[in-house]
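Lay summary. Proteins are chains of building blocks that fold into shapes, and those shapes determine what they do. In this project we predict the shape from the chain. Here is one chain we studied, written as its sequence of building blocks.
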Amino acid sequence: SKADRRRDAAARRSAFEPLAKEIRATEALMDRIRKRIDLIEDELANPAVYEKDPSTATRLAKERSQLAQTLAAHEEKWLSMSAEYEEGTAE
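And here is the predicted shape, written in a compact code that computers can read:
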């Protein structure tokens, strides 16, 4: 019946809530990483950073590279979890 299908769908969503929570946490983390990358890119776009303190420019470039790798890993994890969630909660 329609009520049974709704109840079953609610049970599936409930069973997958921990995964949904992890997906949301991963999304928030990716947002923070993207914001930090944007800030670094803004700093690196300023020619003065290279002239005044080349070591800072080098450090920022390395940090940006590491953050990009971290972001890619989290995006891969997010895609996998999202696919699992969609598959598990589909009717």
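What the prediction tells us: The chain has a mean pLDDT of 94.
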